[in-house]
Specification:
Length: 85
């Protein structure tokens, strides 16, 4: 049985986003993300399936946030990332 997650996904994804913005995708390692977020490598792989999964999750947050700012942003609930539901 898997342990429940004990981290704040918003904190992790925003920290990872800052790391990607600072170093770019190719310049960011899993260890960089681990340091920036405070999660160990195993937790990152378990939660996001690696660096690419973290990037996809950060992009989903950005897309969801952008939808909220658009006129008629109430429809954004349908594109909310799964971890935010």
């Amino acid at each position: 049985m898997a342990r429940p997650r004990s981290f704040d996904p918003d904190h992790v994804l925003h920290a990872a986003e800052r790391q990607f913005r600072t170093s770019g995708y190719n310049g960011t390692s899993v260890d960089d993300i681990s340091t920036a977020t405070g999660l160990d490598r195993g937790s990152l792989y378990a939660a996001f399936d690696g660096k690419h999964g973290v990037l996809l999750a950060t992009n989903a947050i950005l897309t969801w946030s952008t939808e909220l700012l658009r006129p008629g942003g109430d429809r954004a609930a349908s594109c909310r990332p799964a971890h935010r539901r």
